[in-house]
Amino acid sequence: MSAASESQRAFVGLLAQPLVTAATDTSLYRKVLGNMQRVTDHARRSGYRVQRLGRAVRLIRVPVAGTVALPPRPQHAPGRRLLALICCLAACCEDVNGTITLQRLSDMVRDLSATPGVQVTGYDPDDRSQRRMLRAAAEYLDTLGVLRRRTSDDRLLDDWIEGGDGPGAGYEVDKDALLLMTSPDTVALALNPEPADPEMIAASRTMRQLRALLETPAVLYADLDDGGADLLRRQRGLRAQDLALMTGGTVEARTEGLVLILPDDDGRIPPTVIDWPRAKAADWVALLLADDAGREGTRQPDGTVVLTSTQVDNLADYLLRERGDYMNKTQKSVPGTVRADAETKLTGLGLLTVTADGGWILSPVAGRYRDPGVTYNTAGDLT
């Protein structure tokens, strides 16, 4: 593999997993370190910053002209309460040297949340649901490499969650990863981005377009102001060259906008796209309902398709009547489940916006999934 391809894989890997350590992903960590100069150049081109500390590397999404691209919120992203516990747990880890048990971390989070001036709802370690959530917070930090679990016996964790007994589990704190995650400079950039004047906004337009192509499902001309849309149309060839150099991907040009298609990597780097559709009832229901909505709704000049809430209900009912035999028990028995499953999937993918009155606005990108071939084998399984 050429050096250019290696650096592209390393950069795309950091896009998917912005904080990587030698322990969390040895292969990606080695790729990044072996191609650090090229990866840093790719990052700088789109306004990112690569920071290394010890055996940890982080890709920092520095706001450009006071703004960041906003991809759809992942369906399994932590909620506000879990995020608060993650932050509290990370703060407590700063006082840890070596190994520590989850029980001890639980006591530290309790004390921290009870400190005057801390604007976080108190954590109660005697509440089983809160102990379960703290375990989820520890698992989240484990995926980032901030915490590394040192004990493998799940029974210890189960006993701690169910009855608050025992140590729970043993963890080791990776101070390098922790410092990169909680860096005051990075937190300040996220919470207090510098305001941008009109000249800065104009000067950063190219960089913001690259950022949007890298981080969102598609860049639609209708979402840009007239000047930005015209510039992107004229320079789409240049942007495609930039992204090919950085990622090895290609830009698909459509009437409504541009889509970056990244190369398949056979699992050698972290995935950059959601694995959808999969052979699950909620997935194929969303796929088929989106196809029907694209046909039955009213197409707008910007490429979106608009439906009323009643139209959506009618399409969901029709799908239930025609394909109900292949749906799961809840979809068949609980009214509204088919529509709810489709909305959850499609909004998480950035293909759908649900209006305040329940209507649908289907993104032009949903047209890429037109005419799906959903079939069933003799056992009744989706293929």
Question: How does this model look, in words?
Answer:
The protein has 383 residues and is α+β, with helices and mostly antiparallel strands. The protein has three domains: 3-68 and 193-261, no CATH class; 80-181, Arc Repressor Mutant, subunit A (Orthogonal Bundle), CATH 1.10.10; 281-369, Arc Repressor Mutant, subunit A, CATH 1.10.10. The protein contains 17 helices and 13 strands. It has helices at 3-16, 26-34, 36-45, 80-93, 102-113, 128-144, 154-163, 175-181, 184-191, 198-203, 205-215, 226-234, 236-247, 281-296, 309-323, 329-333, 337-348, and strands spanning 19-21, 49-53, 56-60, 99-101, 147-149, 170-173, 219-220, 250-253, 257-261, 298-299, 305-307, 352-354, 360-362. The strands form four sheets. Strands 10-11-13-12 form a four-stranded antiparallel beta sheet. The two termini are 35 Å apart. This is TIGR02678 family protein.
